[in-house]
Amino acid sequence: MLVYGIIIILINRNLAEDTLLKIRLTKKHDFETVMEIYRYAREQMRRSGNPNQWYDKFPEASTISDDIDCNHSYVIERDDVIVGVFTFIIGDEPTYKRIEGSWKNNNKYGTIHRIASNGQEKGIFELCLKYCESKISNIRIDTHQDNKIMQHLIEKNGFEECGIIYVEDGSPRKAYQKFIS
Fold first, then answer.
1. 3 state SS for the chain
2. Of 113, 107, 108, which is closest to residue 91 (Cα–Cα)?
3. Is 16 exposed, middle or buried (0-12, 13-18, 19+ CB in 10 A)?
4. Strand 100-101 and strand 160-166: pairing?
5. Which of 40, 80, 170, 176 has its CA 20 to 30 A from that of 106?
6. What is the structure's pLDDT at 19?
7. Contact 76, 82 (CB under 8 A)
8. What is the rounded average pLDDT for all residues in the chain?
9. Distance in angstroms (rounded) separating the CA atoms of residues 54 and 56
10. How high is the pLDDT of residue 145?
11. Taking a C-beta distance cutoff of 8 angstroms, is the pair 75, 26 a contact?
């Protein structure tokens, strides 16, 4: 249900325990917590065989500040504790203009970027995706070829691989799209 701009979703972990998670825009006072989640995510990527996608300072503080200022950054909370973060932008993504392959369509789309969790809550990607799908039915996402965990989540949730795009530093990413007709 949508309540005052916040989406609240009940995730049933098991019959005995329900957890209420909510998504809201990131506020400036959330900055340090968000950066700590990204530090944790970078370490988890390294441990899982993906040391190159998010280098030491990625995402950079200035990028996160810009995301917050532009109302593109969202946090996921459980009991007022931030457990996840993601960026969602509706509109053209400059790095998606050139693709080796082809997008499913050229309709208006939203892009999910920089999704991460603190490791304390399962289902962060699925919750993020439900939120994004409530905003637009055409969603794109990309990930590094070494990020097997993210590739599995993306494919498990109905995205189709469309080809290879190149991010700002010129490195390749696997590009995916999901369109709900």
1. CEECCEEEEEEEEECCEEEEEEEEECCHHHHHHHHHHHHHHHHHHHHCCCCCCCCCCCCCHHHHHHHHHCCCEEEEEECCEEEEEEEEEECCCHHHCCCEECCCCCCCCEEEEEEEECCCCCCHHHHHHHHHHHHCCEEEEEECCCCHHHHHHHHHCCCEEEEEEECCCCCEEEEEEEECC
2. 108
3. exposed
4. antiparallel
5. 170
6. 60
7. yes
8. 88
9. 7
10. 92
11. yes
Per-residue tokens: 29:
């006072």
Domains present along the chain, CATH in parentheses: 2-179 (3.40.630.30)
Closest CA to 4 of 21, 19, 25, 20: 25
pLDDT of residue 42: 87
| Residue that wins the pLDDT comparison between 5 and 25 | 25
| Cα–Cα distance for residue pair 154/160, rounded to 1 Å | 8
Which pLDDT value is given to residue 156? 97
Using alpha carbons only, what angle is made at residue 88 by residues 82 and 89, rounded to the nearest 5 degrees?
A: 150
Segment 42-76, tens digit of pLDDT: 888 788 876 677 767 778 899 999 999 999 999 99
**Helices 31-47 & 61-69 angle (0-180, nearest 10):** 130
Task: Residue 38: name the closest of 75, 69, 12 by CA.
Answer: 75
Give the separation between CA 179 and CA 159, rounded to whole angstroms: 8
Per the listing, tokens 């050139």 go with 98
